[in-house]
Amino acid sequence: MPSLNDIRSTFLNYFAKQGHEIVPSSPLVPRNDPTLMFTNSGMVQFKNLFTGVETRDYQRATTSQKCVRAGGKHNDLDNVGYTARHHTFFEMLGNFSFGDYFKDDAIPFAWELITKEFDIPKDKLYTTIYHTDDEAFEIWRKVGVPEDRIIRIATSDNFWQMGPTGPCGPCTEIFYDHGDHIWGGPPGSPEEDGDRFIEIWNVVFMQNEQFEDGSMKALDMQSIDTGMGLERIGALLQGSHDNYDTDLMKSLIEASADATSVDPYGDKNVHHRVIADHLRSTSFLISDGVMPSNDGRGYVLRRIMRRAMRHAHLLGAKDPVMHRLVPALVQQMGAAYPELTQAQALIEETLKLEETRFKQTLDRGLKLLDDELDGLEEGAPLSGDAAFKLYDTYGFPLDLTQDALREKGREVDTDGFDAAMEEQKAKARAAWAGSGEAADNTVWFDVLDTAGATDFLGYDTEKAEGQV
Ligand code: ATP
Ligand code: MG
Ligand code: MG
Ligand code: MG
């Protein structure tokens, strides 16, 4: 059975044989792109090559790109622990053509790799195309996909845009049917979100340019951008539908089980899964220079760390756990990503410090949360004031409280939470005004308003992010 490390190599070597340059992953913090919170797809480091602003001495590239989808528009944080196919950190395998080959080659490349190199049975595969893309339909038919397995989709799932303006085009996706013992329906059906038909690969055809006035024209330079989740193809090749059953994720789940002395595959499995996932995203973010803080990228990191720590608490951990799992991660991924090995000591210290600090308030905060819930009617939401107290006094990010309540089928009164936050800011303003400071301290409050810890919305308006 191939390991994830083997599969990564097979992918890169296949495309190297087809004339692609193997390019290293770019960091998780995109260079020169403040509009994007984290690198969330393989194309991010190549944006300027697709627009023609930059050229390099290769026109074909292949990568295994570190991606984080937490915070910002593509946010899979709430899927972790709930679906079999989502991580906050994952590796996206991709092949790219910058004005070189197009659909006629991109589809056969993908098909050959999947059905020959990886030997995946054809009768388990489905493809989707953008509803008007007859060219893609024809090419899929020619490589041998039966017509009733080429599904036309009219939504944005099959039309990719780099941003509101700029390169865009239809895409085609490959799905694998894991069988009717798993809930879910084929792409385009209402049950698509289940884990039965899992999307493994997205192949984008950049053929148009979108302008501000809404018009679109054909691009002179046609390009290809693809993305396949390593953990998803890995699960499939290792005989499972579940990313967390892969060799790599299992070894992290087992490390978590060792550190907490809790059965990895019993009823506490979900906590180990979340911990394994969050261990990867937090460690890779730290190795790329992000440190926990109260705003921006650092606050997303802190939120992920604290969520993991609550799950460790639910496993009964009395002492900090996360830092003890880092060696297992480095052992698995350090060879492919040497920056992880180099940052090992920093990652361990940062996790330990954050967990030691948060431990001091976590237990008391959870106790408060339980007491509040005891006093509430069936199904009623947690009051905004209580959620704000958890945030303000106990350091619970709002999404951590929401995560804790979701298990119990409850929600937070978020309007009430926002109102409590506003009230606190207003009080702080009044205190300043009363102190006789110069009037221009309003600047400080503007900063507070835009950078307030839970108010961080800046990157939600991000435009220039690729799906793939
Ligand atoms: P899904 O619909 O399953 O959420 P997506 O359409 O959001 O996936 P894309 O943006 O098309 O995914 O990304 C390209 C590929 O990256 C996907 O086909 C999938 O294999 C992989 N991928 C996307 N998001 C995740 C994730 N959160 N964890 C693991 N793999 C992912
Ligand atoms: Mg998604
Ligand atoms: Mg999708
Ligand atoms: Mg997709």
Automatic annotation (TrEMBL):
Alanyl-transfer RNA synthetases family profile domain segment(s): 2-468
Cofactor: Zn(2+)
Keywords linked to the UniProt accession: Aminoacyl-tRNA synthetase, ATP-binding, Coiled coil, Cytoplasm, Ligase, Metal-binding, Nucleotide-binding, Protein biosynthesis, RNA-binding, tRNA-binding, Zinc
Reaction catalysis annotation: tRNA(Ala) + L-alanine + ATP = L-alanyl-tRNA(Ala) + AMP + diphosphate
EC code(s) of this entry: 6.1.1.7
Cofactor comment text: Binds 1 zinc ion per subunit.
GO MF, one example: alanine-tRNA ligase activity
Subcellular location, record wording: Cytoplasm
Family to which this protein belongs: Belongs to the class-II aminoacyl-tRNA synthetase family.
Purpose of the protein: Catalyzes the attachment of alanine to tRNA(Ala) in a two-step reaction: alanine is first activated by ATP to form Ala-AMP and then transferred to the acceptor end of tRNA(Ala). Also edits incorrectly charged Ser-tRNA(Ala) and Gly-tRNA(Ala) via its editing domain.
UniProt note: domains: Consists of three domains; the N-terminal catalytic domain, the editing domain and the C-terminal C-Ala domain. The editing domain removes incorrectly charged amino acids, while the C-Ala domain, along with tRNA(Ala), serves as a bridge to cooperatively bring together the editing and aminoacylation centers thus stimulating deacylation of misacylated tRNAs.
Name of the protein in question: Alanine--tRNA ligase
Organism from which the protein derives: Cognatishimia coralii
Gene name of this polypeptide: alaS
Section of the entire sequence shown: 1 to 468 of 888
